[in-house]
Structures are given as structure tokens and as C-alpha cells.
Amino acid sequence: MDSITDIARTWLTDFFDNDTKKEIKHLMENDPDELKERFYKDLEFGTGGMRGVMGVGTNRINRYTLGKNTQGLSNYLKKTYTDNDLRVVIAYDCRHNSKSLAKTVAEVFSANGIRVHLFSELRTTPELSFAVKHIGCHAGIVLTASHNPPEYNGYKVYWADGGQIVPPQDGEIIAEINSLSFEDIKFDKDESLIHLIDEDVDEAFFDASVKNGSFDAKGKDNFKIVFTSLHGTSITAIPEVLKRAGYKNVTIIEEQAKPDGDFPTVKSPNPEEPEALSMAIKKAEEIGADMVVGTDPDSDRLGIAVRNLDGKIELLNGNQTMVLMTKFLLDQYKEEGFKGNEFIATTIVSTPMMQQMAKSYGVEFKTALTGFKWIGKMIKDFPNSRFIGGGEESFGYMVGDFVRDKDAVTATLLACEIAANAKANGSSFYKDLIDAYVEFGFYKEKLISITKKGMSGAEEIKQMLKDFKENPVNTVQGSKLLYIEDYNTSIVKNVQTGEEFTLHLPKSNVLIYETEDGTRIAARPSGTEPKVKFYISTNGKLDKAADYKSVNSQLDTKIEGIISELNL
Question: Residue 404 in 3-state DSSP?
Fold first, then answer.
């Protein structure tokens, strides 16, 4: 195997630009550890496409690694389609270099004779997913690193149905990319094949979002919303969609409204983190707002904060918002009359409460690996079934199937419809959620994420997961272990009887323990960040809404006990 220095030297040929060569020479002479980090591996596709730190090297996001991706994808498109008028659409977010990288990707496609529809300015990921089908493209690309820190960027690939690439296509495309050398990239653009797009697609997307996310909610005139785009792309869509749906009392956090790849007002542009929404929550308390909504930079994830039983603004987690949004949609479909082919969906690390609701409403429940591409694949694989809605614990939700990825634009409108309607009926988003706990069981979850950066961090994550698998728990807070679900081997084992069952999902590095009382603990490496994640799910019986605080406290205590037992 070539040494890392030998691999780095291959980037010193005339094919690479002078700045790249200068930086590599500097690293060779002055920083061998950093050189190693840049070249010890090739960036790989994970749950959300290719994502990584920007910079020179095979393990970085740059014009060459993305150019190679695009060349491989171009070759694959030509082999897959006999259509001479191949078309792709490209969008990009607010991150540093996103616009220039999008231009590079467009140029490589054009150099391969592929027609490109390139958004003239930054746009949301859900609009990109929508545009693929709306324009009639064979594929789509969005340049984004979602909620990752400022030094990251990424490249997500969508197929003709508007969903992200999934097996077997992803493997075939990766094989095509891996068969290339960097010198195979065609950078000689054909400007005649690159067309800028903007308002026409915007209008169609806004109309579709309002159509799918609006349910004639009452009380819009008396419902106050505070919205923050966290310096990201949702500023181009959410205020307009809310306006068209009839919401007039929307306060935008102006300090966070301007797109900025440095995300200067937050530690992390991730609505999962309470700190990210602190400025919006403070404003909501000042003006007496009913709801806070914040989205990540590419607007596929949304965080919602609402007034709790004590009247204080409280950030909900992704499971909570998913549960209530799905229940609301189920109620709408039930009122229309179920046709018998409806289904809802979530992921294997999300709340089991979704399955309980599906049983209660008599609709099909489907579960997928982590990543919205798998939910998009369900819609594609079951064309005669009707997707109502679904989400995942990591703050993503999809309303219907007009967009084939998590969509914070339409989901924001849906959340506002639920909350405005509830307030008009003398309730609230929070109280409606508690009522759902009474009806279906009180499920409470917590995520523990542990960051381990770099080459050594990757090894630490690997070892932590190995230890978790090889040293299974016997009990969790006094409840005996019942099942071990190993998605690497596709086997579920009943540890009490020894019976084994087959998991009918693609293999994945996920291990889940389930105890007799329904407690679930899942572990997996993040597909988009240098993290290992532990998902804890507990449940209890809530006989009446008045008991909520005491049962909630009991579940919190139980979760803290689990965290202590696992030394997390």
C-alpha cells in the first residue's frame, strides 16, 4: 500500500492548481500529522451523502473530490439513461465555498454534455428535492453540510424521484467514482448547457408547501410565531410560506436572518441544541409568542419550542414533534376516510410511540434505517401505498411525498397549523402532546452524542461500539434484557429463549438492546459527523393528563439512571 506521503505527492502534478500544490508542500515540510489526516483515507458516502471538512486532500471536501464524484455520477447517468438530453439540478446552501463548489459541479456536468439547472442563489434542500421532479431531471445535487460546524461542507445526490440515492444505485455510483483517477475529471465547461433557475421553481415549491402543510387552522390572527433561520437557507422560504398560509404575527430574528457560513451567533447551527434557539426563545418570552421555530442551514431539520404547562417556552425533541404532527395528519386522513393503503414511517432509533399510534389508527407502520433516504425509498418501493407522513428523532419530518426528503419548510407550516388550532380550541401544542401520551402511552427519549475527531477518534468510536456489543447489559434499571437487535448481522435474538429472527433491513452498524419493560438502548456511529450516538427510549403509563409532571419526572430519573449504568 502506498504511504500517505506517496498519495499526497500524486497531488503535486500539473493537473492540480498551484494553491493546492503549495499547501500540500507546506504540510509535507511542516505538519506531517495534518498531512496524514488529509490523506489517510478517501471521503465516503454516509447516511447523508458525502460530508467532511473543507481543504486539500482525499479526506477533504474540495473541487477535486467533488469533481471526481461528479465525473463518476456523469458516467453513471450516461450508462443508465439512453436519453441524450440528460438533465440535473443543483442547489447550494450558505456555507463557505458552497456557491463556488456548486459552480464547479455544474461545470463538470456540462463538460460531460449534461444539461444543468443551477439555482442562481442559495436555496433549501427540500426545494432541491422538489425541483428534481418538478423540472423533470434525472438527478439532483445539493452542496450542504446540513447542521455540521462551519468548517464542513458536503454533497448530497438525489435521483429522478426526488429522493436520495439508495442501494443498489449508491453502490454502483460509488464503484464508478472509485474506478476513476482525479485526472479523469472533465473540467472544460460548456456554458451553453448551464441554465440559472430561481423564481419559477420558488413559486411552484411555495404553492406545493402551502397545499400540503395547510389545514385551514383556526386562530391564525391570534397566534404569534418567532422564527430563526440560524443564518441558513430557510429565510428564502419559510417566511413566505407562512405568509401565504395566513400567518401575520411572525417575528424574524434579524441577527440570524442573514445567511452566513460562520454562523456567528451560535456555537452550532443545529436546532437539536437548545443553545442554538436561545436568542429566539428569549425574544418569544419578551413578546409573549406562542411558538419558536428554528431550522438548520439547509432547512431540512426544524426545532420547535412551545409553552409548557407552566407557561414557559420549552424546546421539544424530534420524537415529540414527530408524534404530534403524525397524529394530527392521521386525524385528518381519518376524517376523510382511510382507503386502507395508508402508512406512516420512522427509523429504528426513533420513538416506539409511532408504532403504537399506527396500531391504534389501523394504518401500516414501516420502519427504516437512520437517514431519510430510506423513508424516501419506501415511497418508491410501494407505489400503491399512500404515505401520510413520518420522521426521525433527529428533528426531521416529511409531510406527504411531494418532497422526498425531510422538509423543514412544510413541517414548520404543519406545526403552526397544529398549534394555532389547538390554541383556538382552548388547548396548546404541549397539552395536545400530553393527551397523546394518555392515549398511546408515555414514551420519553434522550440522545447522548460523543464526539471523537480525526483518525484516532474514528478508532475510539469503533472500539466503543465493539465494547457495547461484546459486553451486553443483563438488566437496565432492574428490567431484564429481552432482545438484542444486531443490524450488522441482521439477527434479532431473544436472549431469554435463545430464539433468533431475521431483520429484513439492509445491514448497518447499529446495535439495539430491548428489555422486558420496553426500554430500548441503541448505539451507532454517526453517518455525517465524527460521533458515536446512544439513543435511550423509556416508557410509562399516563392515566390522566393531571399526572403528567410526576410521570415525566419518573421517566427522567430512569433515563439518568440508564446513563449512569452505561457510563455515558
Answer: coil
pTM > 0.70: yes or no: yes
Cβ proximity of 462 and 493 under 8 Å: no
The predicted structure's pLDDT at residue 272 = 92
Backbone phi and psi for residue 162, each to the nearest 5 degrees, phi listed first? 90, -5
The candidate with the shortest Cα–Cα distance to 298, out of 139, 92, 527, 104, is 92
Quick one: cell of 90?
443543483
Average pLDDT estimate for 353-376 = 96
Which cell numbers in the block locate residue 462?
Answer: 469503533
- 479: enclosing H helix or E strand: strand 479-486
Rounded to 5 degrees, φ, ψ at 39 are -125, 5
pLDDT at 263 over 50: yes
User: Cell triple for residue 315?
Assistant: 424546546
Q: What is the pLDDT of residues 461-491, one digit of tens each?
A: 999 999 999 989 999 999 999 999 999 999 9
Is 146 one of the annotated active-site residues of the chain? yes
Q: How far is residue 434's CA from residue 428's CA, in Å, rounded to a whole number?
A: 10
Cβ–Cβ < 8 Å for 75, 83? no
41-197 matches 442-565 in fold: no
* Domain parsing of the chain, residue ranges: 41-197, 214-440, 442-565
Q: Collapsing DSSP states into helix, strand and coil, what is residue 423?
A: helix
**If you average pLDDT over residues 139-163, what whole number do you get?**
96
User: Which residues, 6 or more positions from 4, have their beta carbon under 8 angstroms from its beta carbon?
Assistant: 35, 36, 39, 40
Instruction: Please count the residues of the chain.
Output: 568
Check: CB of residue 69 under 8 Å from CB of residue 62: no
Q: How many CB atoms lie within 10 A of CB 250?
A: 17
Closest of 537, 194, 136, 160 to residue 353, by C-alpha? 537
Fold of 442-565: TATA-Binding Protein (3.30.310)
Interval 118-146: pLDDT, tens: 999 999 999 999 999 999 999 999 999 99
> Which of 74, 110, 129, 146 is flagged as catalytic?
146
Return the CATH architecture of domain 214-440.
3-Layer(aba) Sandwich (3.40)
pLDDT over 80 at 191, yes or no: yes
Task: Copy the grid coordinates of residue 360.
Answer: 391504534
The rounded distance, in Å, linking the Cα atoms of 137 and 66 is 20
Over 60: is that where the pLDDT of 1 sits?
no
Query: What average pLDDT score do residues 498-503 get?
Result: 96
Q: How far apart are CA 29 and CA 7, in angstroms?
A: 15
Contacts of 6 (CB under 8 A, 6+ apart): none
**Res 46: pLDDT:** 66
Please determine, looking at this structure, whether the domain spanning 41-197 carries the CATH number 3.30.200.20.
no
